[in-house]
Amino acid sequence: MKALIKAQAAVSMAIMSSITTAGVARGFNFVNHFLPGISRSRGFQQVPLQLRGGASPNNRSFSSLLSLERASAAVTMDKTHDDREANEIEEAARTCLPLHKSLAITGSIPPPRSFGGISYLDTSSLDEKHSHRVIFVLGGPGAGKGTQSERIVDIYKCVHLSVGELLRSGADKEGYEHADLVKECLVKGKIVPVEVSLGLLRIAMDEKANEALADGEGYGSRIFLVDGFPRNFDNVNGWMKHMPSYTAVLGALVYNCPMEVLEKRILSRAETSGRSDDNLESARKRFNTFRKETQPVVRALERVEQLQSDEFGGSQLKVVNIDATGTVEDVWKATESAMNSFVTNDVLTANALLLKKEGHENMNAFKNVHVDINNGVNAVVTCDREIDGVVKKERRALQHGPTGWRCVGVERHRSKE
């Protein structure tokens, strides 16, 4: 009898070993397949099956194989996600750049032109069509968007518009047709339809643009800083559907800052801000949303810049990534440089229009051109130009006023060259 029992046990072990080896090779879970009741009812824990001498089937334990399977699945999922995101970025970029079908995200602005070798955008069509100049301001929570925007508004006389603030004010705005819808969405935490958000944005832009025309003071042809928009691809698609006829996106200021730095800033700001979302939990959620949804939008805008450069040899859209980890002054230096490049478009446009009225058509006939922007609203354009066979150094002073940029003085003297 004992011999019979030993023989049966040997056969059973051989069968189990064969099943185990085959099962591992085919990638199924032996415990769950053959012993489901035990694994569920008795809290069965999976352990590597050991054969005689401590060897594992195929020299691998079940746990190590499952780990490899999970890792392989994770790599596959990551690649699938990366491919899907890359496709979304490319699709969004192409949506923003319908070169021969309709207006691009840059509106009616033509490809870059040259003034004495300096590339610039001719923004005269924007004034003719009463289109608004727009710069997107993007960045994670605590990256300094608000702080830098305040200084931009003060120096460059721009208009800062937050879509979130416009929605909150729109919900209480008397006579606004979508007030009840906006209020309901805000109360229930729903996403406000993008066409409603953009409608409020257009109303705010029109109101601000008309202020200078009404009182004859202030600043015309101003740049609108659109804060925190677009946050995702749905926002981009909504913008392209509703806004290119009314606006021209000159570019984006993107403030980049790692999470650990943002956390310290959020905690410091929470001591005095009184904002309910100034806490680590909210900040991490907002940063995660920025990383997953907004950063791909930034990549799409950068792709638009690249596509325009490939098509025209220069881009109408300019995305400026700014390191926001430094001091406020350090970040401002980078912001100021970016803003000067945007303002230069209007300065050189005004200068070129004036020269054309004087009969000069070839803007590349001017040499050694240099543009200085002072305090956001004053500029000086210097160049060498030939007048009656004599090369003279010309200096034109321009100021930003109710009608935009205009020339306020000209100086000329014989060039030393």
From TrEMBL:
Keyword S-adenosyl-L-methionine in record: no
GO molecular function: kinase activity; nucleotide binding
Coiled coil feature spans: none
Keywords per UniProt: Kinase, Nucleotide-binding, Transferase
Pfam families found in the cross-reference section: ADK
Keyword RNA-binding included in the entry's annotation: no
Family note: Belongs to the adenylate kinase family.
Protein name per its UniProtKB record: UMP/CMP kinase
Organism encoding this protein: Cyclotella cryptica
Organism phylogeny: Eukaryota, Sar, Stramenopiles, Ochrophyta, Bacillariophyta
